[in-house]
Amino acid sequence: MPFRSLRRTFPQGEAVGLRAHEESQIIFAASGTLQVYAASGRWFVPPQLALWMPAGIPHRVDMLSNTELRMIYWHP
After folding, report:
1. What is the model's pTM?
2. Is CB count within 10 Å lower at the N or C end of the chain?
């Protein structure tokens, strides 16, 4: 499959530890707010906005509120 999607809900304060994916990724905050950290910077992602994460970039995601995420992964 050229892409896959994932939906997850996280409580405020939860974090997704440092990781890197073989696929590129869109991280969409359907509700809630999160911050994404990588060596090149930190991004605040409010509800109804998304962040593109290129393949192979180590990153961490912190939930600043109860958050429902949608993620789409695809091979570059």
Report:
1. 0.88
2. N
Q: Is the pLDDT of residue 76 over 90?
A: no
Contact 57, 35 (CB under 8 A): no
Query: Strand order in 3-10's β-sheet?
Result: 3-10, 67-74, 24-31, 50-53
User: In angstroms, rounded to a whole number, what is the distance separating the alpha carbons of residues 24 and 8?
Assistant: 18
How far, in Å, CA of 32 to CA of 28, rounded? 10
**Tens-place pLDDT, residues 12-43:** 999 999 999 999 999 999 999 999 999 999 99
- Cα distances from 5 to residues 12, 26, 41, in angstroms, run 22, 9, 25
